[in-house]
Amino acid sequence: MRAHNVGVLISTATARSVGADNDSQIDRESGSDLAEALGRLGLVPVSLTTDDALDLGLRRARLRACLLAAHGLAGGLGRIQALLELRKIPFVGPSAQVTGLAYDKLRARQILAYHSLPVPTTVVLGGAQPPSRHAIGLLGWPCVLKPRRGSHAAGVRLLTDADAVADASQAAGGSDELLLERAVLGREVQVVLLHGKVLGAMEVVREADDLAQIRAMTCPPGLTRSQLKGIGNLAEHATRALGLVRGAARVDILVHPRHNEVILEAEPCPDLRRAGVVARVARAAGLRYEALVQELLRGLVDVPERVAPTRSVRRAPAPVVEAASPAALQ
């Protein structure tokens, strides 16, 4: 059987956004890891950068399907997916429209709230109708300032008083790209889903003075079985509400010991590196990296039987606590 060409689309650091350089580094690592895994699966990886020559490259490559190593604005806006849809090239992950809506935290939270799912109280700073001081005051203190479209907690800051919010609002000007939300205390759990079904979860602990930096990760989280089932159901409801039922997705949830859980965001283009949360959670669930890639391509590309990986079975894995490293998710 002739090996199929599978595209690996890797973004470049051209996006002018907070954390763009970090996203580009993650994309390069993801692209390299995905290409290596495709080769081991007996497929032919074709690496393409998502620059102005992408359309020409797609037409020349004769691709059977594509994997996206594009995170942050590069993948989250849905423009790459829209081009693939135009060229009728199948790809792993949600459609362009679904991706763009899910990556927009404000729109995503509106959709989740419509489906009666818990989200933080949020206001938009700047824009045509900036919030009044009274509306901001209703959020209470402290508040969290974050980009409306962003990933890996880049640009996220904790604001402790009205003066800090006023300064942030003035800096935002007429832009509607900053959100202010009520700070919710709790443990952050990132739930990984594969084709709309929970694969597992990772608890992350962030540095207090830099929320973009992760100090430790624990998989599976140190929660009760009923708590894990509850946040898993919440994550599945969230992905269904947003249409994130193709490929891998990640739902970030805050778990409080006495209050209800809160959905922070749903990531339509999660990091696919070997060192990323998706791969680590898959490994804890008994799914090796090559088997994860094969599962992502299910229904799009047939893997030769002689190289198809098998899924190992693990029962009740003990929690694994990993300190953050340069290769860890940021």
UniProtKB/TrEMBL annotation:
GO terms for biological process: cell wall organization. PROSITE patterns: ATP_GRASP (PS50975). Pfam families: Dala_Dala_lig_C. The keyword Cell inner membrane does not apply. It comes from the Bacteria. This is D-ala D-ala ligase C-terminus. Keywords: ATP-binding, Cell wall biogenesis/degradation, Ligase, Nucleotide-binding.
